[in-house]
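Backbone-to-sequence.
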């Protein structure tokens, strides 16, 4: 089973069919009538875990620290009576397997793919805000000989983080697919108004960088897709370093919108390459990135 816990101290089922206050959590999950029975709530992706008895859930619900508008999806597991022994003997999750990948090798792999947006090889660089997509795109562009980068941030805004896609399709993707020059006016985040005009030519490779850039709507037009992975705390830290502490509430809303989007459109599951956006493995970041190897099982 899965539950979604939100900043409002309420939860709803993963299907979104109903919404219940957290004090009714034990009844809503239809847990056994045993006050001493322990229940494990776990978010394996972020390494979070909470353990409560059925009695505790009935009396006080489930509390976890969240920023405004943040949400966590927990898996739910009923544990046996000897919880402490189970936790001691349980093997820790192994770290993800990684490998160093040179940007020039990646560039050659991209160029070997056929164009799928008219004459253009469109490469999406996706991932949540603060994952390191912009720096990655700049380095990959250099390895490709200076490929043009189109940023989804030129279309998004605090008030419209994800609903701008039809405009990008009309002003960028459609002209490029016909071998024509694309023109669009970029959003200016400092003034929060339309900014300068951008021009994109239908060259052999164009990089589309930003949140939701590899969404399902564009899958058939992508020659290659990449996901940048980084922990939530690292992403938030980078965002606040760039936008200032006053933007914490805005970032909380942004991350909640991202979580909801990717829950419905699991981009990471279908990309060609997953890259560590917060790597610990020593490497030359200007010429190399760290590939996260996905399990074959």
């Amino acid at each position: 089973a899965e539950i979604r816990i939100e900043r409002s101290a309420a939860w709803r089922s993963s299907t979104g069919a109903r919404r219940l206050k957290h004090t009714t959590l034990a009844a809503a999950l239809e847990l056994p009538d045993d006050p001493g029975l322990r229940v494990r709530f776990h978010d394996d992706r972020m390494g979070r875990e909470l353990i409560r008895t059925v009695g505790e859930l009935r009396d006080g619900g489930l509390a976890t620290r969240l920023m405004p508008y943040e949400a966590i999806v927990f898996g739910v597991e009923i544990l046996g009576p000897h919880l402490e022994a189970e936790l001691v003997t349980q093997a820790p999750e192994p770290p993800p397997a990684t490998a160093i990948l040179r940007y020039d090798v990646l560039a050659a792999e991209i160029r070997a793919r056929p164009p799928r947006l008219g004459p253009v090889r469109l490469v999406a660089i996706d991932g949540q805000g603060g994952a390191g997509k912009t720096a990655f795109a700049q380095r990959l562009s250099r390895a490709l000989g200076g490929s043009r980068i189109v940023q989804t941030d030129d279309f998004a805004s605090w008030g419209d983080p994800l609903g701008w896609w039809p405009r990008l399709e009309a002003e960028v993707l459609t002209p490029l697919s016909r071998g024509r020059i694309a023109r669009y006016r970029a959003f200016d985040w400092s003034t929060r108004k339309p900014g300068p005009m951008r021009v994109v030519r239908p060259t052999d490779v164009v990089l589309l960088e930003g949140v939701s850039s590899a969404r399902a709507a564009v899958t058939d037009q992508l020659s290659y897709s990449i996901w940048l992975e980084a922990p939530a705390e690292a992403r938030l830290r980078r965002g606040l370093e760039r936008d200032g502490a006053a933007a914490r509430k805005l970032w909380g809303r942004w991350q909640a919108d991202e979580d909801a989007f990717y829950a419905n459109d699991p981009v990471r599951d279908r990309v060609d390459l997953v890259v560590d956006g917060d790597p610990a493995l020593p490497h030359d970041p200007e010429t190399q990135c760290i590939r996260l190897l996905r399990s074959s099982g």
